[in-house]
């Protein structure tokens, strides 16, 4: 059974086509700069080579059509006929409180995702455009929505509420929702299989550190707290997002600089984090290189970045009454040994001991703590797309 996974962002669409019987990736790529000059599709050929196809992509329907054309291209396509695709799974960013699991998309689901556009203004409208485009181009094919927020719906009220007038929670749904749920769900389950321990009784801290980053406290297989909030801005310092900041600083800057709410949102989401501090790049590889050259600002930025993650690990160990496993995933978590070592540097008091040799691993499942370490520290590469494809297949098989 072939399942297509789409991750539609405001100006991009990433895709992966799976053969679910073998879990093989038949095709993958993404369109960038939708609605902007210079849009293009970049795909990875089966031999690993990258190919760039330039084309004007003014909006998402054209984008999805372009992906379909690429998938059936006689030269580098992965299928002969689009009807080989039996289902499409979508990453949907915000499901509010309505969805604690993935669902088959129908009119009621679309209406509910539309209702969440206010809460996820950058992502939900784009996710809907992707769903509509598939409805238009492949009307017979069932579609499934997999929500970034779903896994976090098990958080207790005292963890998800903000200490503001309660009426804002009732009126507008202002609360912590959390994101990257598909990743936290996958890695927290996978690590138990990998270590041969039951989910029941386990206390796991999952650190998803990529361009966007979030941490979750997972007890007995269920999320009890996570660092992202109403939007994916809260928590860790990220590539371009500030993470936690005093609300007082926000209103102060707005007044001083005469910024509108939208301008302030852009500042915090796109111009802050590593980019705001380091100024040269938001990319952790470039930051790592600058640290190696001894650049002072780079060293400060890195210290801030690691310190925030360490603090969250301490907080979540306290929240769960201890921790058995600390897990790293995401582009940085999977690849950057310096980040993992930097984060764990002061965690010896919790019983964390990293083995520097084992920590050299990149992009592979591995234990990186010593045999004596009380807490197991593990790298598990995430696979959000495979998770979305698997949910999609399961929902169709149980229909
Ligand atoms: N091989 C690598 N070595 C070190 N860092 C990497 C590597 N690959 C990716 N990264 C870092 O991971 C981040 C991107 O992570 P990723 O999970 O792909 O982000 P997102 O999915 O949020 O776009 C970047 O900061 C990048 O520098
Ligand atoms: C929620 C979020 O931050 O997503 P991404 O990592 O894809 O930016
Ligand atoms: Mg990501």
From TrEMBL:
Q: Which GO terms describe its molecular function?
A: kinase activity
Read off the PROSITE patterns from this record.
ACETATE_KINASE_1, ACETATE_KINASE_2
Q: Which InterPro entries match?
A: Ac/propionate_kinase (IPR004372), Aliphatic_acid_kin_short-chain (IPR000890), Aliphatic_acid_kinase_CS (IPR023865), ATPase_NBD (IPR043129)
This protein's cofactor list reads: Mg(2+); Mn(2+)
Cite the binding residues for substrate.
91
Keywords associated with the record: ATP-binding, Cytoplasm, Kinase, Magnesium, Metal-binding, Nucleotide-binding, Transferase
Localization: Cytoplasm
Whom does it interact with, and what assembly results?
Homodimer.
Q: Which family does it belong to?
A: Belongs to the acetokinase family.
Q: What is this protein called?
A: Acetate kinase
Give the encoding gene's name.
ackA
